[in-house]
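Researcher: Good morning. I'm working through a list of sequences from a screen, and I'd like to move beyond sequence-only analysis. For each chain I'm collecting a predicted structure so we can compare shapes side by side. This is the next one on the list. No need for commentary yet; just the structure.
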Amino acid sequence: MLLSNQQEKQINKKWNFHPKLPVGFYPIFDWPPSPKRLLNFIWSYWLQKSDRTIFLFLALFTFYILMPPMQEMATLKIEWILMLSLRNYILILIVAGGLHWWFFVRQGQGNKFQYDTMTRNNKSRIFTFNNNIYDNMFWTLATGLPIWIFFEVLLLWSFASGRIEVFQFSDGWIWFCLWFPILQIWQSFHFYCYHRVLHIPFFYKIAHSVHHRNVNPGPWSGYSMHPIEQTIYISSLLIHFVIPSHPLHILYHLYWLVLGTVSTHAGYENIWVKDKNLLTVGSFFHHLHHRYFNCNYGNPEVPFDRWFGTYHDGTEAATKSMRNKSANMK
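Model: Good morning. Structure tokens for this chain:
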């Protein structure tokens, strides 16, 4: 759906920065379909410089340079599992630690392209160790990384030992390539479904509340979740037991899940260096969910929130409509 000039100029004064409003969905499921808009989106968003292309190149680099031989992974041995674990801890420290350092320690671009300049509640008893950053780092490193490592080891061992057949590029290059973008659609479906369930008060209290301690997210908050939620979140990988896949798909899927949630929770739209956009990172669509709570449960890939009436487009009118709807339900 094309935006009018008036819509494109909308400004919500409750934010320091936001992208053009209304913030919408990717044109994958537009109706009537627009092949031209879809191809432009694929070219500009999936085939140009983006976190997705970085994760793809990282998956290729990991597989061909940093991956133990497949025959070695056919047996569960501590040596290759420790190597894999060390690699993953280094990756999360580089991505989450690097973004946090640039935005909030060095303050490399001040508040330029920062969504919300509201002072973070860094010291509070709601946080583990009474500290927001320590809380997020603890849940990410102490529980999140072991769960990531467990699922990665399970799948790579299953491939190497023959429990899952490896789908090679030569077996069908079209499917091999298409499975990468389709994985993002699958993850959006999986995320929306379990996310709605975790907002049921009982499940929210025992698990999802850990993630929602972050009303104004930063990089370390992306994967900061209760272990129950981290397990469900990463469980979207189990699709590879059913759908023909290659270890490259596993690595890309994992990097999109873990490193992707770090970048989308960065709190900034862009990494801005020397007056140039080095990389688009944030997700204003999801940042709205952290502020307003009962909206935008999914991702922009699939318009579940539009279909099920939980869509917030970032405008002040949408906030008023949402609050009126909530008041009428009481």
